[in-house]
Amino acid sequence: MKTVVQSMQHSDTLDSLIQRSERLHLLIKKLSATLPVSLSQHCVIANYRDKSVIFIVDSSAWANRLRYLTPDLLRQWQSLPHIQPIEKIHIKIKPLDEQTAHKPALPKPELSAHSATVISCFADNLPHHPKLREVLLKIASRVK
Question: For position 99, what pLDDT does the model report?
């Protein structure tokens, strides 16, 4: 079995992940801007897959509101330039849990010397991704 470092050393794998992430971020930004303000406070676009946008909403009431607006949103999104085709909206309900919302923050996990070394080695093998390399080296420097 390959380690994460071995798998990610092939720049094609990392490049495809970064490209997908950038495309998804751009799509989310464009689509979110078209949502009514009241709705956008209660839902988030989680993914795009198979010409479908996947939303996560915080209650069934907002899920119903989103379902009601689905035909209008799909029509509106078809007119946006440079948007991948969207034919369907999937809605998942994930209620906000008041108990977890008020929990104190967990202490930051400590990074072991071995993990820092692995992250540092991985970062050194990313010549084509300077921003990612910089972030990984910053993480690796936080070893206690």
Answer: 43
Q: Which amino acid makes up residue 5?
A: V
Would you say how long the chain is, in residues? 144
Domain boundaries, the chain: 1-96, 110-144
Beta-carbon contacts of residue 19 (< 8 Å; ≥ 6 apart) = none
User: What is d(CA 57, CA 64) in angstroms, rounded to the nearest whole number?
Assistant: 10
The 3-state DSSP class for residue 19 equals helix
Give the pLDDT means over successive 10-residue stretches in the chain (144 positions).
62 80 88 89 90 92 94 90 87 75 72 89 84 90 80
To the question of domain 1-96 being in CATH 3.40.109, the answer is no
Question: 57: how many CB neighbours lie within 10 A of its CB?
Answer: 21
What is the pLDDT, as a whole number, of residue 4? Answer: 62
- CA 4 to each of CA 72, 118, 133: distance values in angstroms, whole numbers, following the listed order: 43, 10, 15
